[in-house]
Design a protein that fits this description.
Keywords: Metal-binding, Protein transport, Transport, Zinc, Zinc-finger
Subcellular location: Cytoplasmic vesicle, Clathrin-coated vesicle; Late endosome
Largest sheet: 4 strands, antiparallel
Distance between the termini: 148 Å
Number of strands: 22
GO molecular function: zinc ion binding
Structural class: alpha+beta
Protein name: Vacuolar protein sorting-associated protein 41 homolog
Radius of gyration: 59 Å
Mean pLDDT: 83
Helix content: 40-55%
Main location: cytoplasm
């Protein structure tokens, strides 16, 4: 191995780097390092120190070096890749530590990766952190069962410490590969352009790293449009040949050719974006193949908005074949997308053929709403009894339009209608509602009943009318109404209840009008309910009523039993027992008498308990009063005599004085108090006695 260097006078000076180990098979020079292979192995020379720093022996010495030559390539200035036979070594040149120098070179080589390949290596090249390997392949023929040469392979592998991972593999078709040997193939690469040259005796194959455009080309060729679109979106900054929009349009056309119209329409949203011209172009394409319905759901409705003609064209398509779909679009699409007048006219024309079609009527009402013709929309909704009628009235304040449609609203949903009318009394008066419902008393009752439940006084002028309405349509609520109403004419109510033989209501009215005896008589004779009669007597708490009840019950054993069980706490039971005829059989008499005795004992116990509590409270209060009266009272210069109004204490403290202080805190000089005419020595405050607040007895007499 000779090295030629320019010397003096620009002449070349040769020097021998190595000799004596057979033919030099391969040489690679990079930076300051030269690597070469001969029959014995691979050597590396450091040009700076002019020293050979390593010798990597070949592994399989059974292989002829001329038939299976060594492949060398530098990955960078310090990384050498060696391929020989089926073995791959990746060597790293490293600096030796100063302490290890001695007589050794200042650099050494470490094998960082070593692994074996499946086939013999004809060439190596780096590709980022991976390797490109050209392999010479032999295989057994299926026909002759003899080993023969196969097509060479170009593999991309990922080196691992003791193995490798295959990333991709391609078999190359070159002319005469059946007669070629391992030494006939070579792999060279152009580092700056990422180009790889596979050289065989008859062909040169150029390989280059695929970019995203190549990948997209391949996907489009395989009709994998969705993957191509996704790849283009991910790499939109790096692709040069392709445009996302073109790929997307090709994808839409492909889906339409396959008959997947719904999917094609759905993809339009993403692919066409805000391009109105493309949208309109695609809509016409769908129209040509009769698939406007497929794209209708995906048409843009805001930003961008297409021409009104596009939306009208779709609506007409549905109107001709699918009323429900047409109604759905009208509900979903904003009313400003299309010419409302044109669509209304089209719907009206169709209704001439089918005037009772509820779907078309409902849709026409919505169109009228968009067009702010609320009166017409309301008429249709009421005719259809549609649930949105109340929402429409509230939303657009249509109360002036429903004043003559109250009956229709009540027939549709009386509860919602009444709530709405009562919530908006300022817009539709109570009198107007009652007047409109005059011919429908059952609806009139529903309205007035709910009005009464909300406010007992608002509809007071209609309380007389309500008596007959309750009696006719809602008797269970008649009695609560009579109890709660303070504006109801009792005579009129009594007359109606007596005509209809409403006993409970009549009893209540009689008692309210003061005729309790007639009410009690009615309970006993009409209802024959002793419990209710007793309850009534308890409510009235009238001795004469109890007397009437006893007289009426005295010849009726079941009534006597009821009285005995309930009368004990209100009337002396002896009054009833003395009047019972001798020999009369009374059901459960023993139990009734026992209950009377138990009630009496309970009353005695209650009285005794109350007495104990009263005595204890009186004693406690007496002690408290005594403690209070035993306390001292402050008398100073600011206090005055309540009689003479002079200071209660003399200005000269050396003089004698006599002061009387009462519990009421009034103070007198002893001599200012009037002389008591009573025999008792207890004195009372004249001021408090005069004001009738009770006499305050003297609690302190001060003398000096």
């Amino acid at each position: 191995l000779l090295l030629y260097e320019r010397g003096w006078m620009n002449r070349w000076k040769p020097s021998v780097l190595h000799e004596g180990e057979g033919n030099i098979r391969n040489v690679k020079w990079r930076g300051h390092l030269i690597a070469w292979a001969n029959n014995m192995g691979v050597k590396i020379l450091d040009m700076i120190s002019k020293q050979r720093i390593t010798n990597v022996p070949r592994d399989d010495i059974s292989l002829r070096p001329d038939m299976y030559p060594c492949s060398l390539c530098w990955k960078d200035n310090l990384m050498l890749i060696i391929g020989w036979g089926n073995s791959v070594k990746i060597c790293s040149v490293k600096e030796r530590h100063a302490s290890e120098m001695r007589d050794l070179p200042n650099r050494y080589v470490e094998i960082v990766f070593q692994f074996d390949m499946e086939f013999y290596i004809s060439g190596l090249a780096p590709l980022c952190d991976q390797l490109v390997v050209l392999s010479y392949v032999k295989e057994i023929s299926e026909k002759t069962e003899v080993e023969c040469c196969a097509r060479p392979r170009l593999d991309i592998i990922q080196p691992l410490p003791e193995s490798c991972e295959e990333i991709s593999s391609d078999a190359l078709t070159v002319r005469g590969f059946q007669e070629n040997e391992c030494r006939d193939y070579h792999l060279e690469y152009s580092e700056g352009e990422s180009l790889f040259y596979i050289i065989s005796p008859r062909d040169v194959v150029v390989a280059k790293e695929r970019d995203q455009d190549d990948h997209i080309d391949w996907l489009l060729e395989k009709k994998k449009y969705e993957e191509a679109l996704m790849a283009a979106e991910i790499s939109q900054k790096t692709i040069k040949k392709h445009k996302i929009l073109d790929i997307g349009l090709a994808y839409i056309n492909h889906l339409m050719e396959k008959g997947e119209y719904d999917l094609a329409a759905r993809k339009c949203q993403k692919i066409l974006g805000k391009n109105t011209e493309l949208w309109e172009f695609e809509v016409y394409k769908f129209k040509e193949i009769g698939q406007l319905k497929a794209i209708s759901r995906y048409l843009p409705r805001r930003d961008p908005v297409l021409k009104p003609l596009i939306y009208e064209m779709v609506l007409h398509e549905f109107l001709e074949s699918d009323y429900e779909g047409f109604a759905t679009l009208i509900k979903e699409w904003p009313g400003d997308l299309y010419n409302n007048t044109i669509i209304v006219q089209a719907v009206v024309d169709h209704l001439k053929k089918d005037p009772q079609n509820r779907t078309l009527l409902r849709t026409l009402a919505e169109l009228y709403t968009y067009d702010q013709r609320y009166g017409r929309a309301l008429e249709i909704y009421l005719t259809l009894r549609h649930k949105d009628v109340f929402q429409l009235i509230h939303k657009h304040n249509l109360f002036s339009s429903i004043k003559d449609k109250i009956v229709l609203l009540m027939d549709f949903d009386s509860e919602k209608a009444v709530d709405m009318l009562l919530d908006n009394e300022d817009k539709i008066s109570i009198d107007r509602v009652v007047e409109e419902l005059e011919n429908r008393p059952e609806l009139q009752h529903v309205y007035l009943h709910k009005l009464f439940k909300r406010d007992h006084h608002k509809g007071q002028r209609y309380h007389e009318k309500q008596i007959s309405l309750y009696a006719e349509y809602d008797r269970p609520n008649l009695l609560p109404f009579l109890r709660d109403s303070t504006h109801c004419p009792l005579e009129k109510a009594l007359e109606i209840c007596q005509q209809r033989n409403f006993v409970e209501e009549t009893v209540y009215l009689l008692s309210r009008m003061g005729n309790s005896r007639s009410a009690l008589k009615m309970i006993m004779e009409e209802l024959q309910d002793v419990d209710k009669a007793i309850e009534f007597a308890k409510e009235q708490d009238d001795g004469e009523l109890w007397e009437d009840l006893i007289l009426y019950s005295i010849d009726k054993p079941p009534f006597i039993t009821g009285l005995l069980n309930n009368i004990g706490t209100h009337v002396d039971p002896i009054l009833l027992i003395h009047r019972i005829k001798e020999g009369m059989e009374i059901p459960n008499l023993r139990d009734s008498l026992v209950k009377i005795l138990q009630d009496y004992n309970l009353q005695i116990l209650l009285r005794e308990g109350c007495k104990k509590i009263l005595v204890a409270d009186s004693l406690s209060l007496l002690k408290k009063m005594h403690r209070t009266q035993m306390k001292g009272v402050l008398v100073d210069e600011e206090n005055i005599c309540e009689s003479c109004l002079s200071p209660i204490l003399p200005s000269d403290a050396s003089k004698s004085f006599n002061v009387v202080v009462f519990h009421c805190r009034h103070m007198f000089h002893k001599e200012c108090l009037p002389v008591s005419n009573t025999v008792s020595s207890v004195q009372f405050c004249n001021i408090c006695s005069a004001k009738h607040r009770g006499p305050g007895s003297a609690i302190l007499e001060m003398k000096k």
